Amino acid sequence: MQVLPSILENEASAKLAENADLAGARFSSERTDAQLAELIVAGDATAFEQLFDRYKKYVARIAGKYFSRPEEVEEIIQIAFAKVFVEIGKFRGDHEFSMPGWLRRITANACIDQLRSRKRKPEDLCCDLSDGETSVLEGLAAASGPDSETVVCDRDLAEKLLGRLVPEDRAVLEMLHAEEMSVAEIGKVMGWSSSKVKIRAWRARRSLTKVLGQYL
Fold it and tell me: With contact defined as beta carbons under 8 Å apart, do 59 and 103 qualify?
């Protein structure tokens, strides 16, 4: 008479083990960013793939604010995640940023470095502008002051104009207007004080106004 209870107990134990395995599988696919970081540091390649899949589109959206060509965005993605792989140990525990915040900073810095490496000559801009873009610039004649940069809504034209700014000034305008980040958020990404962010934004606006003035 003890056989049936034993069978039931075994079946119940097996069911509990099965449920535990399923719960473990779900947990492994829903690991937190911190858990993934720890696993990556320990050498788990699968964890890095999960992190990449989780944030690839996020990094691409940030890179897309600075570069319009798909191959340029893809290059930034590769640079950013290579940096993540090398420096992931800095994210564990004592890092001040969330994973999105940390990735935003890494990606923004990668974009700035790429802009610096271009070293475009100022005289190249005139040749870059199409007739349609020149017409758009002529339509900006009535715009002035700090709001002038927000009038430039054509993405290609905006990229060409912003390309005339030093990379840090361009990054500030991209974050303020394209990404709609606050002064405090920009300060965290750039490692600047709020006062410095405001000063660089003012400088960037003045520089962009001067660029527009050359063609209006």
Answer: yes
The pTM is what?
0.64
- pLDDT-derived band at 189, boundaries 50, 70, 90: confident
DSSP 44: -
Q: Which amino acid is present at 161? A: L
Q: If DSSP codes are grouped into helix, strand and coil, which group holds residue 150?
A: helix
Q: State both tokens at 151.
A: 């009038």
| Residue 68 C-beta-side C-alpha neighbours within 13 Å | 9
CB-based contacts of 137, cutoff 8 Å, min separation 6: 129, 157, 212, 215, 216
pLDDT tens digits along 107-116: 999 999 988 8
Give me the torsion for CA of 139, 143, 148, 152, rounded to 10°: -20
- Is residue 64 within 8 A of residue 110, CB to CB? The reply is no
Q: What is the dihedral of CA 113, 119, 125, 128, to 10 degrees?
A: -70
| Most distant CA pair in the chain, distance | 98
